[in-house]
Amino acid sequence: MDKAAIFHHPESEMGYLTKQNKYCVRLRTRHGDFARIRVIYGAPCAEALRNIEGNTWAFDQLEMTKYLVNGEFDYWEALLPVSSKHRIKYAFRLLDATDGEYLYGENALKIFNLQNVAQMRGFITPYLNKCSQKISNDWAQKTVWYRVMPDRFANGDETSDPKGADDWNNDPMKASLFGGDLQGIIDHLDHLQKLGFNGLYLTPVFSAYSGHKFDTIDFFQVDKNFGTKETLKKLVEAVHNRGMHVMMDICCDHLSDFSLEWQDVRHYSERSSYAKWFLIDKYPVRYIPSDIPDYAKMLTYEAVDDNPHQPRLNFENAEVQDMFSNVFRYWTRNFGIDAWCLNNADELPDSFKRRLKDELRLLDPSVMLVSKGRLKANDGSENVLDVVFSNSYSCEIVDAFTKGDVTPIDLSDSQVQTASKRRSSAIPCDILEFDAPDTVRLIDACGGNEELLRSLLAFSFMQIQAPCFLYGTEDLLSVKAEEKDENSGEQPFLNASQSPSLQPTMKWEKEKQNATMTRFVSRLTAIRRKYIDILTKGSFEWGQCSNKTGFITFTRRLGKQQLFCCFNLGYGSIRIVTPKNAKLLLSQNLMEKDSRLGKQGFVIVEM
């Protein structure tokens, strides 16, 4: 028995109030150390004492379920009945395979007997109220997200095109503007719906200098090249009329150096009304340029990754917090935005995020706040916001399928670790994103291998979290390094992780679309939505995984319903036998007559 592996942290993802007014408690133990675990619980007050062979604590018992397993740890879970009028004291009764019994309470492990129970210092639940519940949005659990960069998606209104807009079929350079707009998205909502997506995720639409708009100048204006506020409202209404939802990107940690606030600081230095809005070390604000336009040396102010064009905001300043509070409330109240993705949210004060959540919930109880951070801890740590991007797990999946750096067993361990650090009700709303405007395209990560891409996508759609798709993945949009244009003097970017400006435009000509991939994506989303209860509410049970042959199996289970999944990440075929009564939902490289699954093959069956 490994005593150090036994762990419980109350008032965290290991102890919290659920929507059903029950208190979820979790315990971690070393894999295989214990056969059964029970929670013992009762009132902590003196009246709960009674005389049974001496004073002991009057308690009830509840069997715990082993809800997660990997090669290192077992994770146990139980739901305690609670009341808002009383606290509850609880501890854990652990039974090993040799009938040895132990008592674990407040980090102390002892032999289980009535005397130790009477003297035990257990864990205590707080007085419970609705405020301590994490709200879980049912609509978010059922969403499959499609992410769009308006400038690169479709041009629906040429009157709003930027001056000197690039030809739509040109390869993008860093300063490219193509003229895509909000009307173009409206015109192609049927495309999203036919593919089966029910969530539209927009990169920033606010006034900005670049094509990607992450360098916001004015948060209260729609960028003129994208259309007007009326166009945005028309888009949101059109999305809602299709039973879909809208999420918008926003970067709260910085402003563009073209913003009026920063220009005022440049002009008036410390006398500026906005001087305390930014993190300035020395006046006047200066930097030494480098050969890379978005990187500078010896800045006299703090900037995002030393990008002189993105001065960081001072969130200790009340005026900055008030400004963003007004921004969020304005767009939510007047335009019906369903969700907000806060980029670099892990760098914002928790006090501001709590304030923001409380204010927006008064406007719309179902609005969702999503945390997208750069720190890996953000994937698992309890966040004051509703939802997180499971970035670390996404990277593990991509590496397992495309590089082989992550073994099948490592991948299963990563999934368990991710799930163990989040509340059960939160995980189905969390988002799995595999390519984004600032990363390489997924087809490029797969080396152009369509079968590998389909296998990776099928795996992701069988996870608990909500999948997120970047526009054009269904048509195998690719980012390619271009030679330097000697006439423009512009330096090419080697991959999209260096700049979202390199993302290509959507190809709408039928001959440039990939019909096979489009049908596959439609089938995937149909399976996801049909079996959404199993995938978001059911258990995730890892089966056989082999590092030697490179295969992965797992089962998604809810009551009597089961989905069995097998993926071959190895270099050769593997033997697979599916039950005769199983219903084949989707497969690739399955040789049924030979009962074998080929390289990059997968099979998803309903049992």
UniProtKB/TrEMBL annotation:
InterPro entries: GH, GH13_cat_dom, Glyco_hydro_13_lg-like_dom, Ig-like_fold, Ig_E-set, O16G_dom_2. Gene3D superfamilies: Glycosidases, Immunoglobulins, Oligo-1,6-glucosidase, Domain 2. Residues 147-528 form the Glycosyl hydrolase family 13 catalytic domain. GO terms for molecular function: hydrolase activity, hydrolyzing O-glycosyl compounds. GO terms for biological process: carbohydrate metabolic process. Keywords: Glycosidase, Hydrolase. The keyword Hydrolase applies. Pfam families: Alpha-amylase (PF00128), Alpha-amylase_N (PF02903). This is Neopullulanase cyclomaltodextrinase maltogenic alpha-amylase. The lineage of its organism: Bacteria, Bacillati, Bacillota, Bacilli, Lactobacillales.
